[in-house]
Amino acid sequence: MAEGTPASSLRKGVLFLVTSAFGFALMGMFVHLADFHGGHISAIQKSFFRNLVALALAAVLFARGRKRRTAAETRLQKGTKVWALLMARAVFGTVGVFGNFYALSNMPVADALMLNKLAPFFTVLFSWLFIRERISFRQALCLAMAFAGATFVVKPGFGTAALAPALCGVAGGVGAGAAYTCLRELGIMKVDGAFIVLFFSAFSTLASVPFMLVEFHPMTAAQVMILMGAGAAAALGQFAVTAAYRFAEARRIAVWDYTNIIFGAILGFLAFGQVPDVWSVLGFALIVSAAAAGNLWYNRRNERQNAE
Q1: Predicted pLDDT of residue 67
Q2: Which end of the chain is more exposed for a tag (fewer CB within 10 A), N or C?
């Protein structure tokens, strides 16, 4: 999108990204909850159910609108760039899901969350490298402030983390950042959001099958229902993040992805009785301040440009 992104589009981008953050926080709560209602389930098996539910929902939503389906087919026939971006989004997104789920299953949750919050940085970085979205000093400062807030919240102990899960967590953050960059480009090209989610979910589900068959664990009925809930929450997050980067540039809204941590803390308290300490409260304040400052600076600059 051009430098002068309309304020209405920015607000929509922020709203969708915050909705996405809530959906993924809800997904994380369900994934954690599944371990309390049966035996051990591998990260790949959990991700399979997450992707399967998202695939079903995406297929239903995409099939419902003939006009939307026709528009998507028209754009897909224009050349190989759209297909290349769809494939890149699917591959990077799958790496992000597998890396995040593996880290959550094999290292302290705080460390895994911290590594996953690298995604907005990679989104902005890749957007600058590949689609030439410039980064201002103030935008970089807001991201740094949000990252500092995330550190206060999760208080990672990187010295005690196992190397392989930590590297997988980093790979998850890189994969998610690259996937969101592809989403931004696909949004600019007006590719249908339902089809993007459908393509990604189908790819991720199929990619999970060979690994899951190697290490499949029987599940209780409660675990099945919980993981179905995780899949529905992930679908909400996926549709919302797809819409978010359609409306606004990554550099303008990526900081709002950190609200995921705030939602996670609230859900953790409600579901597991986890109470944030003083450092977490300080982290929340930094995250909210960073998001508010970034939005305020942008609105003031827009007002000055309009006045001129």
Answers
A1: 58
A2: C
Instruction: Determine contact, residues 103/165, Cβ cutoff 8 Å.
Output: yes
Q: Which two tokens stand for residue 182?
A: 């592809």
Which residues does 295 contact at the CB level (< 8 Å), separation at least 6? 10, 14
Does residue 295 lie in a domain region? no
Indicate the DSSP class of residue 78: T
The structural domain count of the chain equals 1
Instruction: Give the side-chain half-sphere CA count within 13 A for 110.
Output: 15
Q: For the purposes of burial, counting CB atoms within 10 Å of the CB of 39, is it exposed (0-12), middle (13-18) or buried (19 or more)?
A: exposed
Residue type at 145 in one-letter notation: M
- The DSSP call for residue 38 is S
Which structural domain, as residue segments, surrounds residue 116?
A: 7-135+163-275
Is residue 16 assigned to a domain? yes
Residues with Cβ within 8 Å of residue 201, at least 6 apart in sequence: 51, 52, 54, 55, 58, 235, 238
Of 63, 179, 169, the closest CA to residue 112 belongs to: 169
pLDDT tens digits for range 153-173: 766 655 555 667 778 888 888
pLDDT score, position 2 = 41
Q: Which residues of the chain have pLDDT under 50?
A: 1-3
Render pLDDT for 72-111 as a digit per residue (tens, 0 to 9): 555 565 567 888 999 999 999 999 989 888 877 777 666 6
Say how many residues make up the chain: 308
Four-CA torsion 14, 226, 119, 259, nearest 10 degrees: 40
Distance separating alpha carbons of residues 146 and 144, to the nearest angstrom: 5
In a domain, 2, yes or no: no
Rounded distance, CA 293 to CA 143, Å? 11
